[in-house]
């Protein structure tokens, strides 16, 4: 893992969580 600015970490984590939850919601709708 390469480190950028410390402030970017929470934002990246938040976006990643949001994308992953959106993907799960899409899977639920298709199922």
TrEMBL record:
Coiled coil: none
Protein name: Resolvase
Domain Resolvase/invertase-type recombinase catalytic: 12-31
Upper taxonomic lineage: Bacteria, Pseudomonadati, Pseudomonadota, Gammaproteobacteria, Enterobacterales
Positions annotated as active site in the UniProt record: 20
Gene Ontology molecular function terms on file: DNA binding; DNA strand exchange activity
